[in-house]
Amino acid sequence: MASFTLHGIPVSRGIAIGRAHLLAPAALEVKHYLIGEEQVEDEVQRLQDAIATVHRDLQTLWKDLPSDAPAELGAFIDVHVLILSDPMISEQPLNIIRSRHYNAEWALVTQIDELSAQFDEIEDAYLRERRNDIQQVGERVLKVLTGTESKLPRLANVDEASAHMIVVAHDISPADMLQFRDRAFGGFVTDLGGQNSHTAIVARSLDIPAAVGMFNASALIAQDDWVIIDGDAGVVIVDPTPIVLDQYRERQAQLTRERKKLGKLKKTPAITRDGTAVSLMANIELPEDCAAAMEAGASGVGLFRSEFLFLGRTGYHNRLPSEDEQFESYRKAVVAMKGRPVTIRTLDIGADKPLDTAEETALNPALGLRAIRYCLAEPQMFLVQLRAILRASAFGPIKMLIPMLAHAFEIDQTLIMVEQAKAQLRAANRKFDAAIPVGAMIEIPAAALTLPLFVKRMDFLSVGTNDLIQYTLAIDRVDHEVAHLYNPLHPAILQLLATTIAVGAKAGIPVSVCGEMAGDIKLTRLLLGMGLREFSMHPAQILAVKNEVLNSDLTTIVPRTRKILRTYETSAIAEAVELLRAV
Ligand code: PEP
Ligand code: MG
Predict the structure, then answer these.
(1) Predicted structure pTM score
(2) Residue 171: what pLDDT?
(3) Strands, DSSP E only, in 173-233?
(4) Structural domain count, the chain
């Protein structure tokens, strides 16, 4: 077979080379037929038994979770248990069997399709992607019903080829990913998924090369095909020629050598060759991630995406984490960071109605009632979070970060609510840091163009380049059809970024970058050249960025960066940024 290349979305670094192991989706093999009245109760029983089996399987997975498993995996299994217990899955398909006389598989697929369509209408990108969780739960039940449970080869049978197995699937559930942990499993490729999909999140936390959003990779790749995943480029090469294979093997070996070398930098302070100190912080999703942040030598947490504490419960449970529960999570994080600052971002989520009807759902969810807009519209819920964060600030240095601000009145309202939360805590005799710094995320172009409003009111700024790019270039960040237009080096982005850093420095308030740009070593020098001194990224990226910092000399980088900021041709910018790495 001729070699071919597929392009998708890079979600996790590194190179994997191995043979494809295909996981076939059960939904494709489902038979649809009508049953007779006398078979209805047997069919109902068959579905109930399959659901009970999956319940038991998930409980076993949860119980056998290795102690070093990423925290997300447990949380994702929880989500699957909740979905499976929800009457929408555990009862509604039974009603379909009874009322329409569909066979069990058909009834289940009908209901899953119906729920998935409703999820597609949800505003919030993260919640929208939970649609995949529902499908994965459905897949599990289907596999039990059809007897096609796809288990991976047992470890004892793993030979040289499968020791470097690349899992190729339409989609992989986090629970299924557990199966791969203890195997010499090289990487994975999925048709579905985006930057925010849980497969991407888990891949990053396991530090495994992966490419998602590959459209029809699982149909094009055959069992046992040789596959190369270039996790940095989001490229998959199928059946490579011997020359290409050799080149990638060489690159892979080089990456392994580099990683080993980087491991020695954990305790080295991040200081440029000309003596400028730089702070490298971690982005975390759950308090448990602090262990990885400490292990990588992070100087603090620059972004705690607090919405992960809320996800998976709204909609299924219909309740939000209580003040005490949130407080416990924030306290855990600040204690784990042992005196290093923890920046907690307040809830960045869309509407709290996962099963909204289409009429109620905004047409442009990314431009809808998100993040601070949502919090200000739900003041009681917001106050609960503000009090929880404030209470945790009695246990170590905490900063509060507010997402998606664009208007002065939003800042003012937020600050009034912070004061209100403080007053409530004082009245209840609760301890907190009265001088807690409050900062703004600069992630809407309007904010980056009206910085004086922000520096006057806020203690620090953090640039969310992921959304700044989305809103400046008008590209939905979860739509893979426009992913190729998502260019951090677009001159408009560089202008907004450089201005924000410069205005912050002039006003004497700290500015960090916490979007994906901060963890991209190809951009480290450019950001240093713009004057950035605080970077926040996934813990797995910290040492590589530190290595860049250690080898940078601002005396040569700054004048070159100024020149880049006067350049408007994207190709010339890309070339000049690449050359920066050579100085
Ligand atoms: C960003 O927008 O760059 C950011 C860091 O926030 P999130 O990716 O969570 O939207
Ligand atoms: Mg953002």
Answers:
(1) 0.69
(2) 82
(3) 185-190, 210-212, 226-230
(4) 3
